[in-house]
Amino acid sequence: MPSRRSLLKAGGALTAATLVPGTMSAQAEAESADPWHEVPRILRKIRPPRFRNRRWDVTAFGAVGDGTTDCTAAFKAAIAECHRKGGGRVVVPPGRFLTGAIHLLSDVELHVSEGGVIAFSTDPNAYLPVVFTRWEGTECYNYSPFIYALGQRNIAVTGKGVLDGQARQGPWESWYANSGPQGADQRELRRMGDDDVPVEQRVFGAGHYLRPAMVQFVKCQDILVSDVTILEPPMWTVNPVLSTNVTVRGITVVSTLYNTDGCDPESSSYVHIHGCRFNTNDDCVAVKSGRDADGRRVGVPSENIVVQDCLFSGRWGGITVGSEMSGGVRNVFAERCVINSPDFPGNYPVKYPVYIKASKKRGGFIQGVHVRDFTGRNVDREVMFVNMAYASNEQGTEPVSVRDIRMERTKLDGADAVLNLVGLESDHLAGVRLERCAFTNVAGPNKIAFTDDLVMRKVFVNGVEQ
């Protein structure tokens, strides 16, 4: 372990950090065993769903790919028939098919053929009646997500085609921009969550302004989202909630509206996200588990999540945890991801390749975020930002625990600093570990506060070992 002097020599600013040369706490020693041995075990338990070799073309149910005919009823009828007959593939052929909400049923694969586009209506009424959902981590009834399933199993969205949210053509941006009306509904929903208002009474939808997610599966099992290109979602893009056995592979997300994360596994387990490209106006992959008192009430963590071989060009974090993490998060692994790839530069440079957000308002725990073999360039701020004082304007008294955050074998060129670690005086950050990393063109010093058991081994910053 580096001495306090060596870290200060490297430009680190230390506040109430525990850095004892040559020693580690018993907890830190227990956590020092290689956690990556868990990844093969996790991946063995994740199996994409399989479907019967039968197909239903949406045009046989009245869909017309002219971009103007409302195909909502045709999608509903095709999915219902596929499900009733024991499952298979509902096919969207080449063409542009306009629709409102699509609700998947068990054993149905929605397949968007190359050249096919599902164009989602810009009319909020196309996403009524309301459905049970989570909105920014709080349960409620709201506009339906554009593609939605509740309590289903063996479901998929696949194909080389496009899901076009058309968000910039709709009213969604006006709902939040320039102090738009979303703010009042957002505050009211958060109050309901904090006051434990029964979920059945938290009804939004018509006359309200909470933007729906693009693709959301709630309380589902055996999920696949594969290969599609997803354009302009109104809010979070792919959001499995309270679900298990989830595969997200080979998708491309391009979003420009505010708060349009790429993929948000939320209170979900055994999730594999790989080979994806995220060009987002927020976090790329953001692991969540509910917000504040409502997240603690539900009390379901996100765990056993593996992210591999993705390109990150999001406006905020690459691999992110939080800030809605009140149900807890454990065992997140991310490897071989590229930050700001020249082959996929995106609209915004990533601010933080690793971004962890928690607070005493959220409470909860984050236990085990492991990153290795990241490469890339032009990080906008720090390589790793762990902020346990996120949203400092929101006061809280809940205990919060963040520990065992690791980065290994990572090479990045260009950043304001390597580390910005913000623990709390009452709840220290613990067990941050960097090994065999090289960072070049780093402009400034580390900032470290209330952090115990910080380990840096074979870490080079601008050619100098720390």
Automatic annotation (TrEMBL):
GO molecular function terms listed in the Swiss-Prot or TrEMBL record: hydrolase activity
The keyword Signal appears for this protein: yes
Signal peptide positions (record): 1-28
Keyword Membrane part of the UniProt annotation: no
One Pfam family this sequence matches: TAT_signal
InterPro entries per the UniProt record, alphabetical: GH28_Enzymes (IPR051801), Glyco_hydro_28 (IPR000743), PbH1 (IPR006626), Pectin_lyas_fold (IPR012334), Pectin_lyase_fold/virulence (IPR011050), RHGA/B-epi-like_pectate_lyase (IPR024535), TAT_signal (IPR006311), TAT_signal_bac_arc (IPR019546)
Rhamnogalacturonase A/B/Epimerase-like pectate lyase domain residues: 58-99
PROSITE patterns to which the protein is assigned, alphabetical: TAT (PS51318)
Top-level lineage group: Bacteria
Entry keyword set: Glycosidase, Hydrolase, Signal
Similarity annotation: Belongs to the glycosyl hydrolase 28 family.
Protein's name in the database: Glycosyl hydrolase family 28 protein
Organism, as annotated: Nonomuraea purpurea
